[in-house]
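EI: anyone free to look at a 124-residue chain?
SC: sure, send it
EI:
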Amino acid sequence: MKNIGFCKAKVLNLIVVILAIATCIVYGMADAKVNSPFIIAMFAVAAIVELILCVKTFPYVEYIPFLCILIGMAAFIKLAFDEIGDVLSKINMNGLSSSWIASAVLIVATVIAAAVSTVFVKEN
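SC: here you go
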C-alpha cells in the first residue's frame, strides 16, 4: 500500500513540473502590457525544485515549490488588475488576449496541482 502512495507523489510532482513549465511558456508569450520576468522565474524555480523532489525528498523542501507558485500568483494578480483596469477604462481597446487568459487558467491549475502535490509528498 505504501508503494502506491509513493507512485502518486512522484506522478503529482511531474504534473506540477509540466504545468509550471507550460505556464512559463504561455505567460512569457502572452500579449499583455507588461509580462513580469519575476513571475516566470518563480514558476521556473518551482519546476526545478519539483523535479528534484521527483528524485529525492528532503525535509521541508516540498513547501518551496508551493510557496514559489503562490508568490508568482500574487504578483500575477497585481498585474491582472492593471490589465483588467486598462480594458475597463478603454485604454486597451483590444481586450484581454486568449494567451493571457490561458496563462491565468494555467496559473490557477498549477497552484491547485502544487497544493495537492505538497499534501501527498508530505504524507509520504
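EI: Residues 12 and 117 are 5 Å apart (CA to CA).
SC: 👍
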